[in-house]
Amino acid sequence: MQFMVSTGRHHGFESLEEARLLLVLDFAGDLVDVVSQPLRLRFGTAAGDREHTPDFLAVTRSGTWLIDVRPARLIGEPDLESFAAAAEVAMACGWRFAVIAEWKAHVTATLDALSSQRRPLSDPLGLRPGLLAAAARPGARFGQVAAALAGKAGVSPGKIGGSPGKVGARRPILGRSRR
User: Fold this and answer.
1) How far does CA 18 lie from the centroid of its chain?
2) DSSP letters for the chain
3) What is the pLDDT of residue 154?
4) pLDDT tens-digit profile of 86-132?
5) Are the C-beta atoms of residues 104 and 91 closer than 8 Å to each other?
6) Residue 179 has what pLDDT?
7) β 2-4/9-11 pair status
8) CA distance 3 to 58
9) What CA–CA distances, in Å, run from 92 to 44, 89, 162?
10) Which neighbouring-strand residues pair with 49?
């Protein structure tokens, strides 16, 4: 299940590619709602009757999209027939149709970076103001900023790295591991 800020709900997906599309839709800015596997199509082909279930129906402020997600390397002839049938249904309903087959690398990297920062982070120990003040000093080094933790929330210079202004890389900053 993928939580979407746009809808305020969790939405189902069956692959990492589908999860990525939900993230993209969430960042698109005009999403109103999205439904996973919204309908099942039954259609005839030269080889006989077939069924296909598109992956998403996305309602946006600019229109409705019926969407299939399938990595390009996995798209075969039966998939092309299914996509054609889904496109016909979408057109008959006044919707748009898209097949999401791949993303450019910079798109996924950017979305990963942005999505990791979109939720507010808490500061339960109240360390942020002191750390920001220490980091704002001209020429501040990491060890000096970390030493600003001394005396806060049970942190002492010895637990940071053995002496004030020096941070040891072999121990966690708080002197204990959390599992």
Assistant:
1) 11
2) -EEETTTTEEE--SSHHHHHHHHHHHHHS-EEEEEES---EEEEETTEEEEE--SEEEEETTEEEEEEE--GGG--HHHHHHHHHHHHHHHHHT-EEEEE----HHHHHHHHHHHHTSSPPP-TT--HHHHHHHHHSTT--HHHHHHTTTTSTT--HHHHTSBTTB--SSS-TTSS---
3) 59
4) 999 999 999 999 999 998 888 888 887 877 666 666 777 788 888 88
5) no
6) 45
7) antiparallel
8) 15
9) 17, 5, 71
10) 44
Q: How high is the pLDDT of residue 168?
A: 45
Q: What's the rounded Cα separation, in Å, for the pair 19 and 34? A: 12
| Contact of 34 with 7, CB cutoff 8 Å | yes
pLDDT value of residue 91: 97
Which parts of the chain register pLDDT below 50?
A: 159-179
Rounded to whole angstroms, the Cα distance separating 100 from 18 reads: 9
Whole-model pTM? 0.63
Angle, CA 10 vertex, CA 8 and CA 15 arms, to 5°: 140
- Cα–Cα distance, 106 to 93 (Å, whole number): 34
